[in-house]
User: What shape does this take?
Amino acid sequence: MKKLMLGNEAFARGLYEAGCRIISSYPGTPSTEITEEAAKYDEMYAEWAPNEKVAMETALGASIAGARSFCGMKHVGLNVAADPLYTAAYTGVNAGLVIAVADDQGMHSSQNEQDSRHHAIAAKVPMIEPSDSGECKEFVKLAFELSENFDTPVIVRMSTRVAHSQSIVETDNRQELELKEYTKTPQKYVMMPAYAKGRHVFVEERTDKLVEYAETSPLNRVEISEKAEFGVITNGAAYQYVKEALGDKASVLKLGMVNPMPVKLIQDFAEKYDRIIIVEELDGIIESHCRNIGVNNVEGKSIFGCIGEINQSAIAEKLLGEKKEFISLGENIPVRPPVMCAGCPHRGLFYCLKKLGVTVSGDIGCYTLGAAAPLNAIDTTICMGASISGLHGFNKARGAEAEHKSVAVIGDSTFMHSGMTGLVNIAYNNSNSTVIILDNSITGMTGHQQNPTTGKNLKGDPAAAVNLEELCRAIGIKRVRVVDPYHLAETETAIKEELEADEASVIISRRPCALLKYVKHNAPFRVDADKCIGCKACMKLGCPAISIRDRKAVIDHTQCVGCGICKEQCKFGAIE
Assistant: This one.
């Protein structure tokens, strides 16, 4: 049966058809929907792990046990999972192990642009890259075969455009597989030096075999055009742009296997043309490989650079000298900057922090929007969990000068991901630091996934819920208190008191995300125009439901959820 599917949905279908049994992932845009879609198939066990490292270790354990397994993450998540990945390259697998990493070219929802091909090269594991939904499904099935045939984890590199674009997928039946037999083999799975040295030899021999496989693999294909003016070597989403922009004006070598890459296949293709153009997003990895194997008639990064996404218009202009728009909406649409939602529980907290002039060490989540105007409340955002560790370092460096006027903010899901160890460091090393956990009862940034604090698992079934107050006290923090960020006066008082204390403290800012379906909202507020003097105090909150019209504040009742913090702000009683 043929069906229109998102790339991530097709990836999940590939897991199902390949007989995958165990799935452990951490949500991260643009990879999240793979695991959410996979969880809809009852034949596969699927879970959200606390972080990517745990997810990969879980999947590897399942593979060793004899079950085809999978874990998914975004590109920065692979950094977290790098520790088990690099050693899994040595141990290899029992049943197939497939890893999805979704790169975010253009940084649509990420703190950096990272080319995950570097991890595959460094870890010495194969990486394959689909360019549409149909290939997503088929490449996943082939990845499991490669994993088992070559005794290796296999990474499937996705991208934002492939993950979130739709194309036709032809579905098939599930392949039911028995558990592979597990045999105790310490020389394969116990990576202490004596055994690891032997496995390194295996890894290098495996790489040679994979290069040989890449020469004739169906993952790589040559598309010759009789009208070709030059040759193009490309991969992933860039292949689609090349085909649309160049048509039959170029012959194409499409690399579906991006590590290791073939040698003779590329050399033979390059000999056919005086000019070879490499079209790849982010770093010049294919280009460097070509030069390393003696193919010097190549150009790539000198034309397209290594920043952001490539598109059809850029390819047509730079390679054909044609200026044309491939996608046009017919009019200029004003930019809508990202903003915290109306009723977001984080807004009141950040307003208080800005009002108090506090230095804020930020973290990864939708609360990172607290850095944007008009709140401008966050000073730093590095990576998940860095808010707490960074605050500790900041305070140790600047001493009492900073301790009483700086805080860390971190979401409940991020705290469970990698914030706990930072808080342990604060308690263990006697750091006078104040940490604020923004507990909105969900993983908000990636689309409302459950986490270990919510009391529900991936499927929404009841699960053990971590008690944040008890956890913080168990870590060694004596001062732990809970505030409601809708109550500005209470929140401001708590921040002042904890900053004044001469010991570590935790404030839990607790209020569910306003977009959760079970959250009941109050009636929307309105502005009495006769009482409003146009002071714009309410505008300082940055609520998208509030605007100024004819020099008076106006509240959009279709957005307002009745949180009431604007009413607290108005000194003239105009909001009611």
In short: The two ends are 57 Å apart (CA to CA). The first strand starts at residue 2 and ends at 6. The CA atoms of residues 75 and 114 lie 7 Å apart.
